[in-house]
Amino acid sequence: MRIALGGITHEANSFSAHVTDMADFRDRHLLRGDEILANWRSTRTEHAGALSVLADVPGCNVVPTFLARALSGAPMYEDVFRALLQDLLSALAAAGPVDGVLLILHGAAMSQETPDATGEVLAQVRALVGPDVPVVGTLDLHANVTERMAAATTALIGYHTAPHVDMYETGQTAARVLVGAIRGEMQPTAALARLPMLLPPENSTHMWGPLADVIGRARELEAAGEIIHGGVYPVQPWLDTPDVASSVLVITNGKPEIAHGYAQELAACFWDRRHAFVTELLPPTEAVRRALARAEGTVILCDSADATTSGSTGDSTAVLAALLDSAPLAARALVNIVDPAVVKAALAAGAGAEVTLEVGGKIAPDLFEPVTFTGTVKTISDGAFVFKGPGMRGVTHHMGPTVVLVHGGIHLVVMSRPVSQWDPELYRSLGLEPRDARIVQVKSPMAFRAAYEGLYDDVIVVRAQGAANPDLVSLPWRQVRRPIYPLDPEVTYG
Ligand SMILES: [Zn+2]
Predict the structure, then answer these.
(1) Fewer beta carbons within 10 Å, N or C terminal of the chain?
(2) Tens digits of per-residue pLDDT, 55-91?
(3) Domain that holds residue 385
(4) pTM above 0.90?
(5) How many Å lie between the centroid of ligand 1 and the Cα of residue 447?
(6) Ligand 1: centre distance to CA 164 (Å)
(7) What's the 142 CA to ligand 1 centre distance in angstroms?
(8) pLDDT-based confidence at 390, cuts 50/70/90?
């Protein structure tokens, strides 16, 4: 049995000022051939999970092809997407005849001229291998699952967790379904229900609240053997494209009516809970005041509007400005910002020097204002660190040249490039312990809660500008098909 393994993973944000280019893939993952197989045993990724299953299948040969993954950002340049797709297709063609294809995807990829980029990848792969070769893909929970994606695949398997911690298990399930389909033991049959709703992610988790009810029911059906997989997808909400929807994708073993029935049940359960996803937002000055009013403990200021994993640019100064307004600040506060020009200036000044610089607000000047920051250059780093939390454990992330500037209690991490903020190693790799701080800024809406578990006493979500603003109604929508919730609160479904 020969199985080709590859994929293109990208999550678009239509409101981001940073167009995703090839450097964004190079910074994260751009793996060819055997590079995909290197170190997989020590990482918690989808492809590692898939490989762990396929390694135990007698006579199974994995042919690694091409695997690209970038941090979220505005839709890819078209030529970048076409180059990635061509690399994947060429590597697949070079692999020769295969019995199955396993693709690692996100499901919310867009390029400037291809709004359903994931559907395009899957349709092209399907055209290359023909109608009879099983093609199974993995998806992020925030996928925009389109009819085209479902039609081109044998099965699509999504994360069941937010914070995302089950990428490894998702890869395992996908590999098992693929092998089952190749052997003829499984006839995956899918039913897709698409819901006209966009939901903010701050209260969207498998651990409590509205999404937990829906995922819990899907898992119940899986455990009972009623279905192979019940994918529940609160879509990445910042996709300003006509064909965007939250969805449910149920896969059964050759039973289309049952798949359809459970898809309808889960979709209704999901739709009925749409109002429960709203999160309380506090203005940054009030959030800082509330955190400083505590006698002790650590408060995370969740600056989710500037979440880099949601596609924002990471150069918001909203929380930093509020902290500076509270200065002199005796309590310790860890904050971070993307600003390569400030890093350069601080490096030129050198460790121990005092600098006064205009910080932030340069990549997305329409959303963020620079602030004047005077501080001492405390730490200089190459910005590389390894995730140690449960999501993406073992994966190295690169902030590029990075400095820590200190002003009173404020410890400002200035990085050259945005990274995922899921993991406290971002701060710890620079000698900053979140547990020792009163305030820790995290630019992630939900996923940080896994690796930060036990490191905080409270989380306050701040109301701020940003490409990942959870106040979805406030954004300048142009393309999205109306009506859709919450832009049109009275929209109906079913
Ligand atoms: Zn996600």
Answers:
(1) C
(2) 999 999 999 999 999 999 999 999 999 999 999 999 9
(3) 284-469
(4) yes
(5) 8
(6) 7
(7) 5
(8) confident
